[in-house]
Write a structure and sequence with these properties.
- By secondary structure, the chain is an alpha/beta fold.
- The protein has a single domain (about 5-105), classed as Glutaredoxin (3-Layer(aba) Sandwich), CATH 3.40.30.
- It has four helices and five strands, in the order βαβαβαββα.
- The protein has a five-stranded mixed beta sheet.
Length: about 100
């Protein structure tokens, strides 16, 4: 299931809260340095793990989602399991910490 997909706010319900299984959502912006650091790490995780769907949401284009989930800083990673948010991490993480974060759901 490799490949990190960028989704819109309109696709969020289908792709994330309506998904049966684990979804890691990366809220990012093109101008954000740490977001650029996280992107290749998410690709690595996606290549290693087929039990987790990974999607990205452009924070600038999705202010309603930012406010709904109380996101103030980016990158923010939200972990969903069976449509429920189960964990949040803010900031860039190395692959090992990202894997541990995904394991907790």
């Amino acid at each position: 299931m490799a490949n990190v997909k960028t989704i819109s706010a309109e696709e969020f319900k289908n792709e994330v809260t309506g998904f049966e299984g684990k979804v890691l959502v990366d809220f990012y912006a093109d101008w954000c340095g740490p977001c650029k650091m996280v992107a290749p790490i998410l690709e690595q995780l996606s290549a290693k793990r087929d039990d987790v769907k990974i999607v990205k949401v452009d924070a600038d284009a999705s202010p309603e989602l930012m406010s709904e989930y109380g996101i103030r800083g980016i990158p923010t990673l939200l972990l969903f399991n069976q449509g429920q948010k189960v964990a949040t991490k803010v900031g860039a993480l190395p692959l090992t910490q990202l894997e541990a974060f995904v394991e907790q759901a």
